[in-house]
From TrEMBL:
Annotated InterPro entries: Acyl_CoA_acyltransferase, GNAT_dom, GNPNAT1-like
Organism the protein comes from: Cobetia crustatorum
PANTHER family in UniProt: GLUCOSAMINE 6-PHOSPHATE N-ACETYLTRANSFERASE (PTHR13355)
Keywords, ordered alphabetically: Transferase
Keyword Cell membrane belongs to the record: no
PROSITE patterns reported for this sequence: GNAT
Protein name, per record: GNAT family N-acetyltransferase
N-acetyltransferase domain sequence ranges: 6-143
A Pfam family hit: Acetyltransf_10
Top-level taxon of the source organism: Bacteria
Keyword Transferase in annotation: yes
Listed GO MF terms: glucosamine 6-phosphate N-acetyltransferase activity
Length: 143
């Protein structure tokens, strides 16, 4: 995949909400049956948002909360397996470093633990259910 075909944007919710909310609606609400009331938690205005485009089309998103938590990492099914989730996460980690965070924390769906471990995250705590989906908390210490 050529880098010319992939672009990454960082912005606030007002700037990226149209594309990001559509991706989250498809991935979380439609595919994973997350209730809308849980997906739209009212925290988006306080976050840094990231959007990845493939050939100009928005296909992935993530957000970084002010406390260094990463969340709402989603890539549309047709764009999975192309390394776009990794690019989103690298952007979140880089931004967290720029903002002076000592660590990045996230709650990973258990099926995605290996993905985050490859990025250097380690799991902690017990498995828990969020929106009906098993999760584990994970952290990456930033140097």
């Amino acid at each position: 995949m050529s880098d010319a075909m992939i672009s990454l944007e960082r912005g606030d919710w007002q700037t990226l909400s149209s594309d990001a909310s559509e991706i989250r609606r498809i991935v979380f609400i439609e595919e994973q049956h997350v209730p809308q009331s849980e997906e739209w938690d009212g925290r988006d205005d306080d976050c840094e948002h990231f959007l990845v485009r493939l050939e100009g089309r928005a296909v992935g998103t993530a957000r970084l909360l002010p406390d260094g938590h990463v969340g709402r990492v989603a890539v549309l099914s047709e764009a999975r397996g192309l390394g776009l989730g990794q690019r989103l996460m690298e952007a979140c980690i880089h931004t967290a470093r720029q903002l002076g965070h000592a660590e990045v924390v996230l709650d990973a769906q258990t099926h995605a633990l290996d993905f985050y471990q490859r990025l250097g995250f380690t799991a902690f705590g017990d498995e828990f259910i969020d929106a009906g989906i098993p999760h584990r908390s994970m952290r990456l210490i930033l140097n």
